[in-house]
Amino acid sequence: MTDPIADFLTRLRNAISAGHKVVELPGSKMKREMTKILKEKGYILNYKFEEDGVKSNIKIALKYHPETKESAIKSLVRVSKPGLRRYTNVEEMPRVLNGLGIAILSTSMGLMTDKEARQKNVGGEVLCYVY
């Protein structure tokens, strides 16, 4: 697989468009951290990491509005791709939907949102936008 992060986002996108309650994904350290950020920011209900020897999986419970059945995640956009990496510094940090969405960045201090990166005064690779 050339781009595991794009695969992670695509599986989430497909599960949401199909109306699934739970989606199971192959796990990695970066996907774990992205899942934790999505939970902290309220885009998913819950998650569970499963490991059996060599292979690890992530089960994610998706979040929907109780009445309209509309997903909490409207859009997942991959920004930095293997063929074209997108880096940013603190001054040029992207604002997703004027602060309503989040950008997930890979920094020297680990994965974090654009707001956290501004507070810690670090730049990095912009992985994706979530809103």
Question: What's the SSE blueprint?
Answer:
Blueprint: H1 4-18, E1 22-26, H2 29-40, E2 44-52, E3 55-62, E4 76-78, E5 87-88, E6 102-107, E7 110-113, H3 114-120, E8 124-130
Antiparallel strand pairs: 1-3, 2-3, 4-8, 5-8, 6-7, 6-8
Can you walk me through this structure?
The structure is a single chain. The protein is an alpha+beta fold and 131 residues long. Helices cover 26% and strands 34% of the residues. The chain is built from three helices and eight strands, in the order H-E-H-E-E-E-E-E-E-H-E. The protein has helices at 4-18, 29-40, 114-120, and strands spanning 22-26, 44-52, 55-62, 76-78, 87-88, 102-107, 110-113, 124-130. The strands form two sheets. Strands 4, 5, 6, 7 and 8 form a five-stranded antiparallel β-sheet that branches. A three-stranded antiparallel β-sheet has the order 1-3-2, with helices on one face. Strand 6 (102-107) and strand 7 (110-113) form a beta hairpin. The longest helix has 15 residues, at 4-18. It is globular. The chain starts with a helix and ends with a strand. The model has no long low-confidence stretch (mean pLDDT 95).
